[in-house]
Amino acid sequence: MNAYEALDAHYQKINDLRHIGAITGWDESAMMPAGGGAARSRAMATLNVLVHDLTVDPQISDWLVACENLELSSMQTANVTVIQREHRQAACLTSDFVRAQTEAVMASEQQWRISRAENDWATIQPHLERVVGLAQEEAAMRADAGGLGLYDAMLELYEPGVTASQLDTLFEPLKTSLPLLTDEIIAHQAKTPGMPLGDHFEVAAQRELGLSVMKTLGFDFNHGRLDTSHHPFCGGVPEDVRLTTRYSETDFLQSLFGVIHETGHAMYEQGRPKDWLTQPVSQALSMGTHESQSLLMEMQAGRSPAFMTFIAPKMRAAFGRAESDPAWSVDNLYRQVTTVRRDFIRVDADEVTYPLHVILRYELEKALIDGSLTVADLPEAWHQKMTDYFGLSTAGNYKNGVMQDVHWPAGLIGYFPTYTLGALMAAQLFEAAKTRQPETLQQIETGDFSGLLSWLREHVHNRGSAVSVDQLMTDATGSPLTTDAFLTHLHRRYLG
Amino acid sequence: MNAYEALDAHYQKINDLRHIGAITGWDESAMMPAGGGAARSRAMATLNVLVHDLTVDPQISDWLVACENLELSSMQTANVTVIQREHRQAACLTSDFVRAQTEAVMASEQQWRISRAENDWATIQPHLERVVGLAQEEAAMRADAGGLGLYDAMLELYEPGVTASQLDTLFEPLKTSLPLLTDEIIAHQAKTPGMPLGDHFEVAAQRELGLSVMKTLGFDFNHGRLDTSHHPFCGGVPEDVRLTTRYSETDFLQSLFGVIHETGHAMYEQGRPKDWLTQPVSQALSMGTHESQSLLMEMQAGRSPAFMTFIAPKMRAAFGRAESDPAWSVDNLYRQVTTVRRDFIRVDADEVTYPLHVILRYELEKALIDGSLTVADLPEAWHQKMTDYFGLSTAGNYKNGVMQDVHWPAGLIGYFPTYTLGALMAAQLFEAAKTRQPETLQQIETGDFSGLLSWLREHVHNRGSAVSVDQLMTDATGSPLTTDAFLTHLHRRYLG
User: Fold this and answer.
1) Around Cβ B137, how many Cβ atoms within 10 Å?
2) How close does chain B come to A186, measured CA to CA in Å?
3) Candidates B20, B32, B50, B222, partner chain A, best to mutate (most A CBs within 10 A)
4) How far apart are CA B493 and CA A216, in angstroms?
5) Model confidence over A84-103: pLDDT tens digits?
6) Domain of B402: which CATH number?
7) What are A441-488's pLDDT values in tens digits?
8) Is A451 within the bounds of a domain?
9) Residue A70 phi/psi, 5° resolution?
10) Residue where a domain terminates, one of B100, B125, B155
11) Pairing state between β B240-245 and A240-245
12) How far apart are CA B206 and CA B224, in angstroms?
């Protein structure tokens, strides 16, 4: 067994244990009764320690060095590159640090659930101070090991190869134009207000509709399933993708577009390079790329007039509405899924205002990491930016302000920007798909996603982590990522 | 950390990984889409190897030796005893042997599914020869390591402390009396034939009825759940017991009593000693003891006139039948759940004929292990015993004869007797419970199982593996296990 083969075998083992962890993690969210929680946490912690120990195994460094003298295929070389990065990211933290951080984050997350419900900043602040302090330490260790800036070292965990300076460039035109664009769109939409759809939708009918849409999009039910959980997510493994949704009896669109979103994630996983699934090179390229696949399905394709034309009759059939009911016309349904409003909550935001929520967080978390903003000053800074970007005050409204997201209490710093990178990529990829395959929208209008999915398989899914985001975007669309396609899309959809 | 504490920590880790394995195993049977199978098998194999490596860790021997010089509590001492046995059982087989056996068994099980469906003995015979050959080797290694007889060494895996000679003594009166008793009962029941219940029962209603019965019996839904799978089983972990059933639209009694059976297993798991759940001493005492808990609920309590009085109105309500319908009277429903017949299939057998199915297998597998019977001669030997004990010929009928059970193709030799040990224990324990708590049957008639469950918790569940079966039975019932209570029960229920 040469060094590459040894690496390959080692990562197969890691992949097997991650498989077990992914399924058990899904179970915890979708199946486990509450009483099973304590024992499960302990069991998962033991598994995670085992996996962590394998990823920092000192043999890996030796194998990586020895690989330099081997003739490897391009995929093998790419695999080695991903392993190098993963190994550096895992090995630069001491076990003691990982344990301390895990404990701090668990305590902080648990407190966050309580504090948020009670709009109580004072009880979460000390936890957040501890977690942010540890994140600063983490960033310093990662920056040192990777030769990166502090924030860049955190960002690299989710978006390898992208730096804060690139983000600044990408986000600038959004920050400048979106507030005005939002004004214009809201004024425009006020001229033709939507008609309400009713307020009761059977969960069983919602589930059937969701399953049928998943099938339409191209989800492979031989390699995955749909269940319910409190927080919708896409988990499992590429061979068996587990996605979840939640149902509101008063709003079926929330669940349906949630399912479409998660199906986008799921099909990315199902489309990872088949012959490399046990190896890191088969993994999704980045969190932004992952989000591009969910947003392409949800925002670009799903909320298009073409798809609404296809799905409107199925919506009416699912909930027993007449074609003659004007509220259930294609036009009104389309209006319902493209309504823009300024609001407090990121996860409920439309695609026009969403990037401003992200930019606000990005700016604040950069300042937290470099120490120019303290946790104590965070609520005021949040309020200030919400006022500037949205004209909304969050003074005293922690629950719907600085405390609305789990990310910071969970120690996730550097993650937020990937949501907007995903939105930009989705727009640029969808534009390219439509240009290269001009029949795309007509196909979607008949519920045929096979052409679009094939294009995504070839240009995104099958590439795994074997290229950079820049390369992937250039190969697929002819240029690296810019904001052009996204802004053009917004103008066309909302003011066209 | 002294040697005992080191052992304790080591087995906590093993327990954590077994937890993960149990949940993932449940998922495979109850949730996983078929396409996930290949990757899952690989992942589970990796986890199993990890767990096996931990159970044969050479440090364990050192810790066990060092424990001899420590002052331990009685539970700690019992824990050490169980660990000693488990470690010996794991360590006496080489890794090469385990791998060879695992592969042979997997191939054999897969072939069995095909061969059984096609009633084709010729294709399974070579697999069975290989598996039985390996079982003989296994028995020899186990016998050597444990100072036990060949068959006793296999039996010890499922029923520690019980020997073939004890089984011979227990089974003799059953073998002698049951064929005649069966004749008598069948003749007796022929005088008052049952009325059929109908042939369509909504699955949703069956599920609701099953859930409500689980609640009645005392299943804790905060620590477990009910799902469906092709083969019903009780899996998961004590903190989160996963039980499954399957539904037939034409026969609701099969699923309902299946649920009651699995709930008996499940409540044993839920009742294991709370403070010792991470340690081997908390495990169920033996497979026979486990089966005693399922059969006590299903056969002793569940099919009693008292329970049928309680459940009959709920059955009628579940399926919309009138109280005046004579087929749905308590009497006829009771008759339906206590019908005795001679038949080919063990898993469908009633409690009267079941032990004969077991004794037949026990006699044959003993002969297979000691080499006095070859696999080639097995179908003829099966046919002979079926003719002797049941008056039924299985000549050429492999499917419903020698090929009906997965146990031998799966390499499980020494397991069958535990079914009948469980039936005997169930009868003796239930008799003792009724004697000690004379209100038991009246309580069951009102759907109150709390008294019975408390008694089982104290005398069986909470004891874990800290005692021998003999001791447990003596403490709970006043005498070691005999066939008296079981035979008395049969006479009383079926001829009384």
Assistant:
1) 14
2) 45
3) B20
4) 58
5) 999 999 999 988 898 899 88
6) 1.10.1370.30
7) 999 999 999 999 999 999 999 999 999 999 999 999 999 999 999 999
8) no
9) -105, 150
10) B155
11) unpaired
12) 19
